User: Fold these one by one.
Assistant:
Number 1:
Amino acid sequence: MGSRYEGTILQSTFPAVDMPVSPFPVRPSSAPRIVRIPGRGVYWNKMISILLIGDEILSASVREGNLHRMLAGFTGIGYEVREVRIVRDVVEEIAAAMRELLDRSEYLITAGGIGPTHDDRTLEAAALAFGESPERHPQMTAFLRKRYGDPLTPMVARMANLPRGTEVLGCDEGCWPVIRWNNVFILPGLPRALEDKMSRILELLPPRERVWSAEVYLAADESIFADWLTERQHALSGAAIGSYPVVGDYDYRSRVTVRGTSREIVLAEARAIADHARRQGWLVRVGGELKGE
């Protein structure tokens, strides 16, 4: 994950601002928004797309419990998540979404739809999406026998029918293996099982260039500085400015972040934002941590 750099680094960069050492967490009430200019998107790494599969999510029968964990894990090692999509348990819709998302991203991560019931259709859809005939995978079969006992029922046995070329990793680790086809990782939807596999996937993904982040907390509503912040992003190359309003009993109204792979660019832009906010009387604090995500 990389080392964490505490406020002492920021103190030498923002000499006129008090830098508390403890990081200030993102509040649950925050509504993130990234300031982006058409044609000037800041994408410092190849991207990941996430596909969540299940009628139960779309019908609100089950509360979705995986997305935040996945986003935190991938962005934490320097990947940018390009898109998140939720589809029904329909083979053709799952397959179409897989093809589209994989075409737009370097890696695709799916969650859900790989169990033994009639509405678990992800593996069937994967074979259709990749144009690979499903075949009985010996390692997956052995895992299922160990988990469910022998002989396998027909519905359990079909969980071992994987697209040709699929790897099954970590059968002896945790409650479920990682199913991988090239740059696609197929995960279970059960949060406990997915959490069990996230660390393994993060290890399998190639390391990316480190992303630096600095934060500025403002006692001003976004509407006051939105035009100015947009102009700064338009003129900025190599980093992304994010704006996060909050609602509630906090000592600040907005949190502005600067993220990028160049420490110098990130610090220079964050300092410019903090200096401007101080002159306007908006500055509450600067984030106490400069972190490599």
Number 2:
Amino acid sequence: MKSKLKQAKDACLAKAREQAATLYTRDKAVMRKLDTLVADYPNTYKLTGQDEVSKTYSFPKSYVSYRKPRAVSTEQRERARQMMIAKNKAKGD
């Protein structure tokens, strides 16, 4: 059986000689975040294209960041797990 859902896809393009980065997305959550940025900062973030399922945005290349993965210790992971268990129990009450 073929899945009717198509994979969400994001692609960021930052050319060496250009100052702007281009982001193509089909992810609705990413679109909502970027639509908010376009509305709040129209001189910085721009919607450059869209169709029924995707949007393309442009923004300064300097806003793209590269980070190493965060190292989480076993103790931190367990503390976060316990915190979420407590939060979910409180939500259910």
Number 3:
Amino acid sequence: VDVLPPFPAPDPAAFALNILSVLMMYGPFYLANTG
């Protein structure tokens, strides 16, 4: 019996890395604008 359903196309690790890279790129600009 499969407990976890198969994940959709991009795996969660790649998705998290993608979001992390975006945050690292735009984080300083966002903080500079809101600070």
Number 4:
Amino acid sequence: MKKEYYLKNLHCTNCGEKIERRLKKIDFIKDVQVDFITKKIYIETKEDIRGLDKKVKKTVHSVEPNCIIEERKYMHEEEIANVDIMKYIIAVTMFLTGIILDNKYSFYLLIIAYIIIGYKIIVKSIKNIIRGNVFDENFLMSLATLTAIGINQYKEAVAVMLFYSIGEMIQNLSVESSRNSIKELLKLKEPKVNCIEENKIVTKPIEKIKIGEVTLVKSGEKVPLDGSLIDKVCICDTSPLTGELVPKVYTKGESIKSGIININEPIRIKVDSEYKNSTIKQVLDLVENSTLKKGKSEKMITKFSKVYTPIILIIAFMTTILGYSIFGGKLVAWIYKSLIFLVLSCPCALVLSIPLGYFSGIGAAAKHGIMIKGSKYLDTICSLESIFFDKTGTITEGKFHVTEIVPFINIPKEKLIELAVAAEYYSNHPIAKTLRNSYNMNIDINSLSNFHEHVGMGNRCTYKGKDIIIGNCKLMNRYNIKIDDNCKMGTSIYLAMNRRVIGKLIFNDKIKQGSYKAINDIKELGINDIYILSGDCKENVEDVKNLLSIDRGLSDLLPQDKIKAFEELSKNKITSFVGDGINDAPVLSMAHVGIAMGGLGSDIAIEAADIVIMGDDLSKIPIIIKIAKVTRKVVLQNIVMCIGVKLTILLLGILGHSTLWGAVFADVGVALIAIFNSIRIEYRKYN
């Protein structure tokens, strides 16, 4: 059983880590992940457990008493954190006055300022100690500042508590700002929907809308649910899903996906999918769950944070004891040095900025209509050695055009077309769709029977008492049907009646306009090992390969052949496969990073792929690579900066060249710099 909880008032990354560790110790919990960025707990149990909610609440409150556990909700429904600005203004005023006066009243002003700003932190640390949760930032700051007061360092005690509190406030607001940018991205769900019932407009919650109902979408409104257009024509902005800025025209009967914006006159849409199965629900789930599959850097930092605080505390204690015992001097001076260690002993900057960096990378991709299922795929993309492409619908438009009709016997072309459309009547292959859409043939379905599809080859059926076979050379060979024909440029589909070839249809498929630049950009980004794996004939694959300057192209591949070819060519390489997600699902799953194009129309794509491109633009592939490289660069910058600055201040502290002021600036300041550095990933241009 899987369940999700939303954590309100979770402001500490360390607390999130502790909650996760404690929940993992519960016997019946199979897996648990606490995600600080989305403020959620994801729990998987071995079976349906009664009392799970109480157990989770008890565990959470043992670490973070102020946390409120709520049922699952999407990020954009969360409230923005309130900040008590007046408290900080009063505390800062009293602190500055105490420093300026520097007389007998200074002590009282500083202590009052300390109480105002540090009261909640001290109370919280005491409560946590009672619950057995000692080593958190509240305890460390309380211990450091109270000890400073004990050795008459009043100004520094107040300064540390003040700067720490203000830093935490800015930190929370910065993280909230990053969350808000994702919330804006995810404001695709319309909570209320206008429905037309008995010529009246009725407003309903989106979850209550059933298949077959008619929704009314006014100009400027988002399409709430997947459906088909009832009106003659409409113009929609698909950028919220695909990232494409050019409006798209839909005609009567055409499928329209939820989340896009109607920019013309009001339209009516007949719902063909409930909210739980809609495109927008899948997109929301993809983005919200993307932080669960963690990258190597995230996992490394999680392990590092567990030992960092205890090690620093031990060093702080040993600094006082051994320093005073070996080198002598004033005990107060050695205690002061150990306080610097205490201030720097919380790894919040690292634990927060690393996942935030990945989250910003995923958010940047989502703005371009690219849904990444986990930060680990951003890591993997940076190490890609080879990329494999499907041809039809990925590199090419996947929209076939009949360029020639060639009868081999004395048969009218119209009759040849009728037999071809009948044989493709129940198929979903792009060629079948082209035939049905291009020729408005009145097929007598009562005369159509025994339909059987040979995957990757064609179809066989009985039509008006005749045995009809339509497909490529492989299918003709399977039925021992001889073909005496010279190949022409394009895709040739042969038609046989009663085991005799009676003609062929030649189809052409154009290369997408953006494919040329996309392949060139991929090579410029350092990936030159590029392949095409296609079921199309050799001539077509060679033509596309040569036009795009791709290294190698394999043709005439059935789905099982494509798997075998991919296994052989991808040995000892980090690979990605890019396909449409329908026939390519097995290979998408086999690749280190499976990328599905055209995710707007394919449930299989969303399920099988690691990355889903919501449109059909191949130029999104180099954008993914650029985002991944920038994300890794920023994450490494944050790691080096956070560890480097803290170690430098610690060393200066031991040598007597650093103060508590410097330590708190290093702790809070480096956290803020790392956070802002992470957030900038989202606002960078990648086109």
